[in-house]
Amino acid sequence: MYLLGILLYVICLVSLSALGGNLSYFLNLPSLVIILALTLPMLLASGLLSDFLKGFSLMVKKVNLYSAIDLKRILEADKLAIQSLAIAGFVGTITGMIAILANLSEPAKLGPSLSVAFITVLYSLIFISLILPVRAKVSSILVTLEQEQVK
């Protein structure tokens, strides 16, 4: 179901982007690099990258193979990823705004610089929205495990 939901989400994103103009306006490699370059090292530094990836593997499995401790680590990794993505989006935006201010004397560069500044926030929000269903499922499984232990 996760893959189907993500597919529908991507279709909606592409459709909305196409309504807003040329799809190429929404593709920016430097913004994507900023987001990933500021998020992945945080997961690596915390030692939670493998737990973060476990969360996605859990989404495509029918049965939970992880312990409560593993699930809590996945939740912590997802929390860190969401926070890092939000920070990366804002860093990209601030960087873009600095570029805008540096080029105020060249009006032709303002529009493209402004779009790059905002696209990093868009990318971070898209990545965060891909993590939220993982958090919800892991939390749900964890609640079920805890309820079974009480019985």
Keyword list:
elongated; 81% helix; 5 helices; mainly alpha
Explain what this protein looks like in three dimensions.
The protein has one domain. It is 81% helix and 0% strand. It is elongated. By secondary structure, it is mainly α.
Task: Give the overall form.
Answer: elongated
**Whole-Å distance between the termini?**
29 Å
| Largest sheet, strands/sense/barrel | none
Strand percentage, roughly? Answer: under 5%
Low-confidence stretches: none
Q: What is Rg?
A: 19 Å
Give the SSE order as H and E letters.
HHHHH
Average per-residue pLDDT, rounded, comes to 90
Share of helix among residues? over 70%
Assign the structural class, choosing from mainly alpha, mainly beta, alpha/beta, alpha+beta, or little secondary structure. mainly alpha
Please count the helical segments: 5
- How many β-strand stretches? 0
Please, how many domains?
1
Q: What's the short version?
A:
The chain is mainly alpha-helical and 151 residues long.
